[in-house]
Structures are given as C-alpha cells and as structure tokens.
Sequence to fold (239 residues):
Amino acid sequence: MLANVKHLVGKLLRKPAAPADVFYRDHDYLTAYRMHTDLRVARDPRAAIGGRWHEIGLLQFRFLVANGLAPTSTLLDYGCGTLRGGRHFIGYLDAGNYTGVDLSPRALEFGQHLVAVEGLQRKRPSLVRNDTPEQPFASVAKHRFDFVLAQSVITHLHEDITRKLLADVAGVMTDTAIFFFTYNEGARYARRRRKSYVYPCGFFAEQASLFGLSITDRSRDYPHPDGQRMLALRLGRGA
Ligand SMILES: C[S@@+](CC[C@H](N)C(=O)[O-])C[C@H]1O[C@@H](n2cnc3c(N)ncnc32)[C@H](O)[C@@H]1O
Fold:
C-alpha cells in the first residue's frame, strides 16, 4: 500500500522509477526481478547483488576450492550476477572452464566490463543470459559441468521456480558433479520480503529424493555472515 502511494507520488513528481516499483506493475515475478536487478546494477553494480563484495566473493571461492574445485574443473555459476564470486573463479580456472548464467543483461554487461578491467579475457569466460527462465538451463543445455553453484539465488526464488531448477540441474552435471546452493532457512516455505524466500531443509530433501539426488547439509563449513545455509546435491541416492 505504502509502496503504491510512493509510486504514485513519484509518478506525479515525474521522478524516475525506483527499482522496487517494478514489483507493483503487471509483470510476472522473474520479469520483475530481472528489471529490478537491471535497475540496481545501473546504480551500483557491486551492491546490486547483495553487497559484501569481497567477503562473500572470497567465501564462495574458498569453499569450492576446499571442496575439490581444481583449475581443470568446469564450473557453472548459476545466477552469477556481477561476478562477485565469478571474478575469483575466472582467475583460478583454466581458460574456458567458467560459465556464468544470469537473468539480468545489465549484470552480465558489468561482468564483461570487469573481465576486461581485471585482465581476465585470456580465461575466455562464458557469460550467458538466461532468457527462458521457465527452462532454467536451456542456455547451457549442451554442456556438463563438474561443479554447479547457486550462491544467493534460491534465496530469491519462489518454490515453483526452485522445483524446476532442482528437477533440471542433473541435465548439466557430470556423473561426479556437485551442485552447491545456498538458501535461507524457515520453519516453513514463505515469502519474507519483496524478493526473499525462506525454505525448510525438508523441502530440498523431498525434491532431491524425487529426482534421485543425494543431499548433504554443508552449512557448518560455510560461515555465511547472514546465516545463509549451504546444501550439496549429487547424482544418485548416496550410500
Ligand atoms: C543476489 S544475486 C547473487 C549473485 C552471485 N551469485 C553472487 O553471489 O554474487 C542473485 C542473482 O541471480 C540471478 N538469478 C535469479 N534467478 C535466476 C534465474 N532463474 N536464472 C538466472 N539467473 C537468476 C539474478 O539476476 C541475480 O543476478
């Protein structure tokens, strides 16, 4: 209500739209989310994807290396944003082994800019737009990755989108791949803010079992400053 009033007043004063306004217009959720990210990247590309640029960039990088990511590994950074983690992965991995996918064209543009500024072109990263959100892996469907990471992505996705992501991820994983992803824990699934969702761990256990994946809680090894939890999925039902 308050946001609608603010939107109206903003319009009357001919102010440019604030990013949050897109959620109150007639867009489906992922379209609004993409527009919101684009607008925020235009304002501040490092803050747009959650801030704590150095801390959380290094956190995800060090965690994957501690869990077997080698320069020869291939990595899909799903929802790579403006490369908070990506810039570390690109520098570390062999040329051609990093793929970042995102909904937001502005985030990917900034990512390309960063790759140039940081002298990382020789690593030939692929930065790919997901322009078919209903088919989450369509843009990379021909590839198989040793690691898939979704840092602070499912934290923003409602359960139908998350289900589809978990249903399809096996299609881009090698036989021994691990899919690491973070989420915010809640007693039950709920939308907390405009683009923030919480899940019980049981939701992921149920989905993993439906899709023949094994699941491990790695949160104790992942000291995320805001308490995001970390799960690992592998192909097969485990031991
Ligand atoms: C909070 S940011 C995190 C970015 C990055 N993983 C990091 O840790 O810095 C979430 C990103 O996921 C992207 N995203 C969300 N849903 C997506 C989807 N279904 N397909 C591709 N990208 C998505 C958003 O556009 C946004 O850039």
Notes: The chain has two domains: 2-43, 53-235. The domain at 53-235 is CATH 3.40.50.150 (Rossmann fold). Residues 37, 49-50, 56, 79-81, 84-85, 101-104, 107, 130, 133, 136, 151-153, 156-157 surround S-adenosylmethionine (CB under 6 Å).
